[in-house]
Amino acid sequence: MESIKISKRPRLNAPYLIVAWPGMGEVAFKAAAYLVEKLQAEEFAAILPEDFFYLTASTVQKGILSLPELPSSKFYYWKNKAGKNDLIIFISSAQPDLAKADAYCKRIIYLAKMFNVNRIIGFAAMPQPIDHTQPSVVWFAATSPEISAELKKYDFKLITEGQISGMNGLFLGLAKKENFSGFCLLGEIPLYTIQIENPKAAYAVLEAFKKILNIQLDLTGLSEQLRVMEEEINRLLDYLKLGPQGPSPIGEEEIERIKKSLSQLTRLPVSVKEKIEKLFEQARRDISKANELKAELDRWNAYKEYEDRFLDLFKKSKDKSH
């Protein structure tokens, strides 16, 4: 198939396919990348980026301007010598334009069929009104009642209504149309920390993944990362004088204030910045797209950062109409 490069064809036994893109808390991306590192999974295929990604800016380092590389979308494999299911791990460093999502996903599904993938597993974040010191509870959604029943024996929470946004949710739905079965594991993250990495949620997701597949996986590295991140958030809350008083949860007003402070002191995930830039470009061509852009900015509490550019869209649109 076009746009996919296969450098090696390993013999795999009833493999499970894990898929991950950057997103809220970078939960999916971090969990999948940790899997690749700890299992020493080997790269064997990639989706060529030119048909699905485009550059939105140049980079400047030490005063020198240059073009960055396009995002990568790579496949890795791991042979499970102690179990019946090998693994294929797909990780992309950015989410593609959703207008091209269907064609992009067909490349992944093509490879999944080639290697007779048995089941597909996705990871994602589950924003909740919780405190960052609380354990990250794992939620799940499955493509069939049978798989849902299998997962109920674990201490996870079932998502009964709602949606899983972005590629980390969309791909499983598209794969189901191609008769693949699977499920998504979602780690809880506090609403006020959606813009920063959440190793605690990634840890919880991989702990759940270990139980389901019955594999050995050392999570010590993530454990140390989550401790450091928790300390950093504690320091920030102390600085802002917004820490929770006693066992009661943080109120909505405080959540909004913390989110605004975090938006100034932390960076948006690269994938989100790229999506915002694409929406700005679309809105420049068609002002009706401004509603979708505003919704994305509000979702990440980033409107203030982009306010001047957003308002300029309407000035330019008005000028064109005269």
Give an overview in words:
This protein is α/β, with parallel strands linked by helices and 322 residues long. The protein has 2 domains: 4-219, PAC-like subunit (Rossmann fold), CATH 3.40.50.10900; 270-321, no CATH class. 43% of the residues lie in helices and 18% in strands. The chain has a 9-stranded mixed sheet, with helices on both faces. It has a two-stranded antiparallel ribbon with strand order 4-5. Helix 5 (199-213) runs antiparallel to helix 6.
CATH architecture label name of the largest domain: 3-Layer(aba) Sandwich
Helix content: 40-55%
Q: In terms of structural class, how would the helical and strand content be classed?
A: alpha/beta
Rounded radius of gyration (Å): 21 Å
Assigned CATH class of the largest domain: Alpha Beta
| Strands ordered across the widest β-sheet | 1-3-6-7-2-8-11-9-10
Number of strands: 11
List keywords for this structure.
322 residues; alpha/beta; Rossmann fold; 2 domains; nine-stranded mixed sheet; two-stranded antiparallel sheet; 10 helices; 11 strands
Layout: helices, strands, pairs:
Blueprint (H helix, E strand, L loop, with lengths): L3 E3 L9 E5 L6 H13 L2 E6 L11 E3 L2 E3 L6 E6 L8 E6 L8 H14 L4 E10 L9 E5 L2 H7 L5 E2 L8 H11 L4 E9 L8 H15 L6 H21 L11 H14 L4 H16 L4 H10 L3 H19 L1
Parallel strand pairs: 2-7, 2-8, 8-11, 9-10
Antiparallel strand pairs: 1-3, 3-6, 4-5, 6-7, 9-11
Helix pairs in contact: 1-5, 2-4, 5-6, 8-9, 9-10
Give a quick precis of the structure.
This protein is α/β, with parallel strands linked by helices.
